[in-house]
TrEMBL record:
Domain Plant heme peroxidase family profile stretches: 80-292
Lineage, highest ranks first: Eukaryota, Fungi, Dikarya, Basidiomycota, Pucciniomycotina
Gene3D superfamilies: 1.10.520.10, Peroxidase, domain 2
An example Gene Ontology molecular-function term: metal ion binding
UniProt KW keywords: Heme, Iron, Metal-binding, Oxidoreductase, Peroxidase
Enzyme class, UniProt record, top EC level: oxidoreductase
Name of this protein: Peroxidase
Sequence similarity: Belongs to the peroxidase family. Cytochrome c peroxidase subfamily.
Record has Heme as a keyword: yes
Source organism of the structure: Rhodotorula graminis (strain WP1)
InterPro entries the record matches: Ccp1-like (IPR044831), Haem_peroxidase (IPR002016), Haem_peroxidase_sf (IPR010255), Peroxidase_I (IPR002207), Peroxidases_AS (IPR019794), Peroxidases_heam-ligand_BS (IPR019793)
Record PANTHER family: L-ASCORBATE PEROXIDASE 3, THYLAKOID LUMENAL 29 KDA PROTEIN, CHLOROPLASTIC-RELATED
Summary of the function given for this chain in its UniProt record: Destroys radicals which are normally produced within the cells and which are toxic to biological systems.
A Pfam match: peroxidase
Length: 292
């Protein structure tokens, strides 16, 4: 079948459950980071989507612009080439799926497989045929900043304060890499498990600036040198409108899972314009053909 490397048309209706199962089967990678590529796949889906601007209706998860240097080479996207490379065999096996659908679906599958909620996902994204529609660089958040920056970035996408805090809970997953962002370390002791731990760490421990040569980040002396918080993570407990949500999600797992599923689904829909055919496509809330 014709590969859709440069597909201006949406994924043909293929077997999305088969794609889901193949994504799930590659998550465990013993030699990679903490043994799973799940976290970096979640970040790929987020960075693919988080360039959206509601006012100009540009950016977002349509297009898979990170295949091009213009977007893929944005320093904010450093390291995501690993995520894209891991997904390449899945794309080769199912060439009918667009990259834009594959990357967002991979995030959803990874969240579920790591113990998180079912996030609704719907196909119909197209891939840019060249880099002319790639969003400008600089639309993704800068971890060195504070609450004002978070609002500037996330309000632009159309999110509110509660949604900003719910989205940030993804930092229970994965880690910072000094050779990618410059920061170093995970936020949680179980970085391959979806959980409320990020909020618990923020609310139950005192964080102080780490004394080191690297960029400004925070540490807790009882937790040791590994675990970390970014300045933008600290902003969530320093801001009076953010902190009630941090406290709520630290205590109420069900509320967090539900709100996260809603907001992540909203995130990966940003910038998607479907043809009529796909407008009526079913919304897959989970893998119906889950063989496990
Ligand atoms: Fe994040 N994130 N993120 N993040 N993020 C990093 C890693 C991961 C910020 C900065 C960083 C979200 C929000 C923010 C994930 C998911 C999400 C890293 C480390 C930095 C820096 C990169 C590296 O060195 O490899 C900032 C700033 C924000 C913000 O201001 C709100 C959101 C909304 C999500 C989401 O998925 C909904 C995940 C997962 C990772 C771990 C990646 C990995 O490789 O592991």
């Amino acid at each position: 079948p014709k590969t859709q490397k440069d597909a201006a048309s949406p994924s043909r209706k293929g077997d999305f459950d088969a794609v889901r199962n193949d994504i799930a089967s590659i998550l465990d990678q013993p030699d990679y980071d903490d043994g799973s590529i799940g976290p970096v796949l979640v970040r790929l889906a987020w960075h693919a989507s988080g360039t959206y601007c509601a006012e100009t209706k540009t950016g977002g998860s349509n297009g898979a612009g990170m295949r091009y240097e213009a977007e893929g080479g944005d320093p904010a996207n450093a390291g995501l080439e690993h995520a894209r490379r891991f997904l390449e065999p899945v794309k080769e096996k199912h060439p009918w799926i667009t990259y834009a659908d594959l990357w967002t679906l991979a995030g959803v599958v990874a969240i579920k497989e790591m113990g998180g909620p079912d996030c609704k996902w719907k196909p119909g994204r197209t891939d840019f045929v060249d880099d002319s529609k790639c969003p400008p660089r600089g639309r993704l958040p800068d971890g060195a900043q504070a609450a004002e920056h978070l609002r500037f970035i996330f309000y632009r996408m159309g999110f509110n304060d509660q949604e900003i805090v719910a989205l940030a809970g993804a930092h229970s997953l994965g880690r910072c890499h000094s050779d990618r962002s410059g920061w170093e370390g995970p936020w949680s002791v179980t970085p391959t498990k979806f959980s409320t731990q990020y909020y618990k760490m923020l609310t139950k421990f005192k964080w102080e600036e780490k004394k080191w040569e690297g960029p400004r980040q925070f540490r807790n002396e009882d937790l040791g040198e590994e675990l970390m918080m970014l300045p933008t993570d600290m902003a969530l407990i320093e801001d009076e409108k953010f902190i009630p949500w941090v406290k709520k999600y630290a205590e109420d797992r069900d509320a967090f899972y539900k709100d996260f599923a809603d907001v992540f689904s909203k995130l990966i829909e940003l910038g998607v314009e479907r043809t009529d055919d796909y407008e009526s496509a079913p919304t897959f809330s989970k893998a119906e053909g889950d063989k496990k």
